[in-house]
Amino acid sequence: MFGGLVTGIMADAVRAAAGEEFVTELRLRVGRPLIVRTAAERKVARMPSGFVYTVTEGDIDALLAAASDYSVYAVSDSMARGYLTRRGVRIGVAGEGVTEGGGVLSVRNIRFLTVRFPRQVRDAAEFVRERIFPGRVPRSTLVISPPGGGKTTLLRELARISSARADTLIIDERGEIAAASSGVPTLDVGDADVLTGVPKRIAYENTVRAMSPEVIVTDELFGREDAEAVAEIVRSGVAVMASVHGRSEGEVLKSAALAPVVGCMQAVITLSPYPRAGTPVSVRIAGEAEA
């Protein structure tokens, strides 16, 4: 179940809360109830007996061991950045940070995990497909939503559609869009090329020259460096589809770091996690009335 990450009694508790095909996220906090999220709701997991499933240190350790192929040391660099991935499943980690010189060296005494399971929704882009693809190459597009709003699911579908028309490259720093295993996507991203696990700035500089993509699809932008890099790529003539956290375009524009990327995009899509993930809030196409 769940790629071997969730087994035994915990798996039974999760299964009692929601079917495996519907689970999008688990939240584990030592000594607290296990929380199960689907696209539509948040539930407390219960054991078959009906008692609330309470997370233990053993649960955390077992999940981390499975996610790291039983070599937590091998993924220590990733965990120092706050997460690790296994076949597209992103596991956020929190505990005690070990710092030096302003940087995080490692995380110890991990007691909190957020496990996010990627889901393929093949019609996720249908509500906006014709407007984003007026021709062979798509409009440069920014997808905005709060956490859990369906940004990655939409980007995955946009990448798949784009790859049938134009040379498309996915820069998948956190491994969530393509869910690659040993470099091979486990989710359907069409004929797109995929680069996983490389910081965006380095990936942008190297792949634009080496791979000559017509379209770049990239996961969540964070901070001025990411925004400026994307703006520069768009100015160079490559279409970019990317996402940022936010509740509205106006909110993102208030960020001095992220405003430049909004200004260079031809389309801005805002999503909401309510009443379910991926709910469209607005679509703005440059030169058109907002929908």
Your description of this structure?
- The chain has 291 residues and is of the alpha/beta class.
- Helix content is 27%, strand content 30%.
- It has nine helices and 15 strands.
- It has helices spanning 8-17, 57-67, 76-80, 129-132, 151-163, 200-211, 223-235, 249-253, 259-264; strands at residues 23-29, 35-38, 42-44, 83-86, 89-100, 103-116, 141-145, 168-172, 180-181, 184-185, 193-196, 215-218, 239-245, 267-272, 279-285.
- The strands form three sheets. Strands 11-8-12-13-7-14-15 form a seven-stranded mixed sheet, with helices on both faces. A six-stranded antiparallel sheet has the order 3-2-1-6-5-4.
- A hairpin with a 3-residue loop joins strand 2 and strand 3.
- The longest helix is centred in the middle third of the chain and has 13 residues, at 151-163.
Secondary structure: helix percent? 25-40%
Classify the beta-strand content into a percent band.
25-35%
Q: SSE order, as H and E? A: HEEEHHEEEHEHEEEEHEHEHHEE
Main sheet?
A: 7 strands, mixed
Number of helices: 9
Overall radius of gyration:
19 Å
Which structural category fits the helices and strands?
A: alpha/beta
Amino-to-carboxy terminus distance: 41 Å
Strand ordering within the main sheet: 11-8-12-13-7-14-15
